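Lab notebook: predicted structure, single chain.

Context: the supervisor wants predicted structures on file for every construct in the current expression panel, including those that have not yet been purified. This is the next one on the list. No modifications to the sequence; it matches the entry in the shared construct table.
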Amino acid sequence: MIVTGFVIAHGVMARTSPSLGNGYKPRAARVRVRETIHLPPMALLPPLFALLHLILGGSELAEDRFSVVLPSAKAGDAFVPPVPAASRGRVILFFLDDLPRLLASDPSDGPFLTHPSPIASIAVANLKPDSPIVFDRSVRDAIASFPLPVDDTSNGIDSLNGRYRVQAIFDCAAQDNIGHHRAGNLLSNIVELDLSSTSEEVVALRFETAIEAVPPRKIQGVEWVEMKSALLSEAAGHDVFLRAGVALPREYHNIDAPRRVWPAVYALPALGETHDNAIEIAPALQSENLRTAFPQAVWVCLDARGPTGQHAFVDSDANGPVTRALVTEFIPFLEQKYRLVAKPEARVLTGNGLGGFACLWLLLRAPDTFSNAFVCAPEPVAMARLGQIDLTKLTNAFVGEDATEIAAFRGILGPQDDRVYMTMREALAMETAIEPHGLSGGIFDTWNAMFCAIDPTTASPRRLIDPVSGAIDPVAANEYAQFDIVEALAANPARIGPILDDRVHILVGSRDSSYAQRGVELLKERLEAWRKSASRRKSLGSIDVLPQRDRDAVSTDARLRFGFAINDWFRSHGLADELPSFDARKPFRTPGVDAPIPGMP
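Prediction complete. Output recorded below exactly as produced.
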């Protein structure tokens, strides 16, 4: 056994290879233990070749057996984690190709957007020390896997070929399901091995450490706050808390500063992010050099984690009245605690991806609470353009009208070329392999919990897409349509039109990684048509699709442009001090690409 005794501080997401974001990683220290098992050399065939082997009359796939055990405490054993608080849950196996570019990531950091990798899981009713949890053909019907089994006898991981690293997680059941990286879950050692569909492997793993809950970091200018929500606690039947990381402006504690009350920027997290975002915002707020680009306000980085993963502050059966709890309970609490100006013009929203949708939804639901939304690549915006899917036409989410596989995530290769890293079929299969009952915390399970009612037959949110066949549930599609921003404009143009036209500011790249630009483009088209029909000559808002930008690139643009625009808004309402002349900002603009910011030449 080779033991590398170094400690790794984990952030929110796996940065080496982008993660799906369905596991939240607390900043917990953990010890990585690695073993190498040398098995006989074998052909490195992908699962498709294994299936062809059977079709062409080859022998059956060889049976693999994986076992994971929680060892009992023994004298001198340094790697025995505590028995988890909940013995019921799910054991998940994560496989990762043993490639040099992936060595910085642990298998359990997955799933990965740019490198879909095998996953298998099984439910555990009662995890006991020294009682192995076994993955083999005797329990094949109980195993959820990606890739799916290639025949009626396979368990899904029998067909794997190649050199992998494998690691197990015990995702223990809890009141707040916030992903497989939550505190209290158990991690196994990492085993390196060669797998072949034509020979049997027996692999033993053991849980050796628990993910620890680490107190929030003490950062200058950041305070961590939580408040028990009466609304959410009553709905859930147990105590539920709203949390935020609050990043304070440079002069907040200066009793001689001319400003003693402050506007607030409410930052909504993207999928996989938490209120830890305040840690990144605080240094910019404290920097004198960034005053022109970073509004001097109280930044409230909201925590959107809930019982199904991330709720985006959308009221739903699964997540409870989170919109009402934020608006009627948490914001008044924060305004009293942090000397905030309790007026709509002093409250703006900002967010990216799922957080961008949350901003739009909150502004439309509570237009008398918030003034503006500054959002980057919001998704979803239009159910007719849910990524690459048109819910108004398609009956299957895996295959398009041209019979090709529908892409879910892409990267830019060149001026005209993209690389599809993951298809819709793969995205749904990986979520289901982690947790087959809608609690994976992945984007589709998250959307289902936000938009759909609880299905009485499963006691889980209704699924939009069947994870095996790709069939779209028309009932779920109709429920999704109730949250369609474009359709909201069509249904109530007199109310929704002015809000979107004057108070919404959107940036998205024309080559967004998750195809979010398609929905934004439709919203822009419909809003321009409404503006013309309403004879509106001037719009105070903006929707800009920046050419040749993906999600990461446009996020960088958005930080600068939105920072200036929010400063302009606060200053125009007497909520911010005068800044240097606009000439100082010109180097930050991209000629020929950036659209004018309201208030700027």
